[in-house]
């Protein structure tokens, strides 16, 4: 083992020797954010950074993939591959699991995950939750025990508000004291607003950023660094008063959205009882600028952020600041987690029984339109309910060759459309299904089919064209 | 009495004889909406309507005021008086309490109130609520028992979704059957989006409208009528599928706002615990188009709509459609009703005790900036709490000469600024206080003063200028 480590240290030293004119940026965590953040920094306009991406030893496959010249995340954004290729040409990016990298860093960007553990009952009923900071704390110790004295730590992880001040800073003070050093480190927080999808790179490079530091010197250092990475002429930076503020800003953004989705979900059920097409109503309301952010009914909420950030916030309020429970925000998660049950119940009600033995095609598995991200996809609960009933389910999603969380391969081609089904459910409103005509041509050769449009994407034109088929459209007043 | 009624009928006949070339529009209810709606219709571009405003006999003072050439509602919108004057010149408006008017109407516009009765505990804690439809039903019987056979009933009142179909229509069917008539009436629903204030008339005439009818013929009639009243070239009408939809749209709009205010109130308390200036955070978040409707912290919620519409909706869902409780919407009202307690508690905490014997100036009494509307103003709960503590309170509001709900006269001049106070609370962020400098000049001659900026309107400039005074700004991280 000692030999292996030494060899890896030599690799790192060689990489840095080839970049001796550059500052060293280490990105901790090579997931959805860290991987792209790494290559954006490695493509800085002035070519001033050598970037080392560090992840845990159990993520060796990802590290090897990166070093072998392949980007490990499938993306529809061509810029991702372009940036990655260019970083390789420049030789400004290297991936490793060796903590030795931290000893060389001028800047460490923290992009590791911080999860909420939900306690759920039947049908994902939220019964409690907890936030375990142990992994995050360990990661901070890892850096603090070996970093350079004047390092800048830039936390990008979505953390419970209060984390930089109450958790990160004390760890650095403790480790620096152990090392006999004055607390000369700088700690800042700046959250990304990464959207996987066609604007993946732009969502980091060309988008507004909010930042802060634990003191003026730290905030200044973050500001200077971000100016070299982000197109700040077009997307000016916003400096907030303290790290609590930026940390709160991130979870507030996501809680706002989660809560507005939960709100409209309750109205969806009311609207259906009253025979009201809520899509039509929401479109009318959105004409008012003060109401443009009202949400549309859908199947459910997925992804890494909206499903947990309101809980991170409420946890922080109670545990780190001895303040109130954010009841509206917690309730939002609880409503959203169960949203897919509504589609399930509507289908079941339509058939007058569960779907035992029926054959159902689910179009779209990911949680987001035109993107292959399946983390916490709401399709999962729908799938689980149908499967438990003994329904024969066929999944289709061109963006998801493999549903990692279920360890299932998924067909993304046209074979799925050759079968005969009792019902088709739109799980994710990918453009190919309605906008680009896939559903249209499928309906032309189908009969006695129930279509559940969980997202209200099927317009009047398509409905009129296929009047010989049976359509059932959730939330459009005809269920 | 019979003679009096007959005289009034003669008055009505004379008014209509002078307008024999015109169609007759009766507006039922001469409150905030009905009064302005009346004069907008009386000013139709083609001068095609004679308008009779009808209100209950106990509203005789308002009726007399109108017929004597004075508009009964104080407004900062010059157009209100211009329109009223022009209607008088045209002789196209008359007010009465005589139901005889309904026998003459081609169109009846329903603009009466429909209230929610809240059951409240200590400090306005919402413990229950009920909707009493009796008054509304009686008003419908009044019309249906005497209207013309082909009348168009246009309901503008904010009603529980389902009302036109489940309550209005059956009453008309019943009364027409009693009268031996076929059900030839037309019933439509179109809600206004009236904003009292400088755009009072425009909020009716120059704004988007949503409409519907209980059948195609009714919806067509509403559409035709609205085209003659509203600038539909610029603000196109939106036709929805049924009256449930438009009725729902109105209360959904207001619930959306109420809920977003309640949401941010919880975060305000969290932010203050964490020393975060939430205004700064919200401004940063609003840079994202998807988050522009996030609200700012404030003193509380007032007015006639946001304080009750979410409850009307939830009541309708449960009582008229046997559907779900709108929990997020009900909770919003419950949080908002108590919002002013937060300002009260912050003040009390600052002084370390209640404000017994202290002298406090409250700037602004109405519920809305630059408007004199005091209906359900949140200042009331703040006032009541301070008064119960034995605080000496001085109120100031240039838009509210009389606080009707409290039967108090209010000083709107500069005398209030001559006193010496322990604290000044911004109750309503009227422009005169901060933007137009009233507070600035007051602070120049004050000392040892605590200023509670419940709305975050005091900027850095004013704060820096008066550093010799003590400022306490709620929600800005320095409380």
Can you characterise this structure?
- Two copies of one chain form a homodimer.
- Chain A is of the alpha/beta class and 479 residues long.
- Chain A has three domains: 2-249, 3-Layer(aba) Sandwich (Rossmann fold), CATH 3.40.50; 260-336, N-(1-d-carboxylethyl)-l-norvaline Dehydrogenase, domain 2 (Orthogonal Bundle), CATH 1.10.1040; 340-465, 3-Layer(aba) Sandwich (Rossmann fold), CATH 3.40.50.720.
- Chain A has helices at residues 2-17, 34-42, 60-67, 78-90, 134-144, 163-178, 202-205, 216-227, 243-273, 278-285, 309-319, 327-337, 340-351, 379-388, 438-444, 460-465; strands at 23-28, 49-54, 93-96, 107-110, 116-120, 126-131, 152-155, 186-191, 209-213, 237-239, 359-363, 392-396, 402-403, 408-409, 423-426, 450-452.
- In chain A, strands 3-2-1-4-7-8-9-10 form an eight-stranded mixed beta sheet, sandwiched between helices. In chain A, strands 12-11-15-16 form a four-stranded parallel beta sheet, covered by helices on one side.
- In chain A, a hairpin with a 4-residue loop joins strand 13 and strand 14 (408-409).
- Chain A is globular.
- The interface between A and B is large, with 63 and 63 residues.
């Amino acid at each position: 083992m000692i030999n292996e480590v030494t060899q890896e240290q030599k690799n790192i030293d060689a990489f840095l020797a080839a970049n001796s004119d550059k500052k060293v940026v280490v990105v901790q965590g090579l997931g959805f954010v860290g991987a792209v953040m790494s290559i954006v920094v490695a493509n800085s306009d002035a070519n001033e950074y050598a970037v080392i991406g560090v992840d845990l030893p159990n993520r060796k496959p990802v590290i090897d993939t990166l070093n072998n010249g392949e980007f490990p995340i499938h993306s529809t954004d061509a810029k991702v591959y372009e940036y990655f290729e260019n970083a390789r040409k420049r030789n400004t990016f290297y991936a490793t699991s060796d903590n030795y990298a931290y000893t060389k860093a001028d800047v460490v960007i923290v992009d590791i995950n911080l999860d909420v553990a939900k306690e759920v009952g039947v049908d994902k009923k939220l019964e409690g939750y907890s936030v375990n900071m142990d992994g995050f704390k360990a990661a901070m110790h890892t850096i603090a025990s070996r970093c350079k004295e004047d390092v800048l730590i830039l936390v990008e992880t979505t953390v419970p508000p209060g984390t930089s001040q109450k958790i990160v800073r004390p760890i650095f003070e403790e480790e620096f004291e152990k090392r006999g050093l004055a607390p000369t480190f700088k700690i800042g927080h700046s959250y990304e607003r990464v959207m996987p999808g066609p604007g993946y790179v732009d969502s980091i490079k060309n988008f507004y950023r909010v930042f802060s530091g634990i003191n003026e010197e730290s905030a200044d250092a973050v500001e200077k660094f971000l100016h070299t990475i982000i197109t700040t002429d077009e997307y000016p930076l916003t400096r907030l008063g303290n790290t609590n503020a930026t940390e709160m800003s991130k979870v507030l953004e996501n809680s706002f959205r989660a809560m507005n989705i939960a709100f409209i979900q309750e109205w969806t059920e009311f609207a259906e009882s009253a025979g009201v097409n809520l899509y039509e109503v929401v479109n009318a309301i959105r004409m008012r600028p003060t109401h443009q952010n009202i949400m549309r009914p859908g199947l459910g909420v997925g992804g890494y952020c909206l499903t947990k950030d309101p809980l991170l916030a409420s946890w922080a309020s109670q545990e780190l600041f001895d303040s109130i429970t954010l009841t509206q925000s917690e309730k939002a998660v609880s409503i959203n987690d169960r949203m897919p049950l509504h589609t399930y119940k509507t289908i079941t009600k339509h058939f007058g029984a569960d779907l035992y033995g029926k054959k159902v095609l689910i179009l779209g598995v990911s949680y987001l339109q035109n993107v292959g991200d399946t983390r916490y996809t709401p399709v999962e609960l729908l799938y689980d309910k149908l499967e438990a009933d003994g329904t024969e389910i066929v999944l289709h999603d061109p963006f998801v060759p493999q549903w990692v969380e279920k360890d299932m391969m998924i067909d993304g081609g046209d074979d799925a459309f050759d079968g005969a089904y009792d019902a088709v459910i739109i799980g994710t409103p990918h453009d190919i299904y309605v906008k680009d005509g896939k559903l249209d041509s499928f309906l032309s050769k189908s009969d006695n089919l129930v279509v559940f449009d969980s997202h209200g994407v099927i317009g009047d034109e398509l409905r009129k064209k296929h009047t010989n088929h049976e359509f059932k459209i959730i939330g459009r007043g005809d269920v």
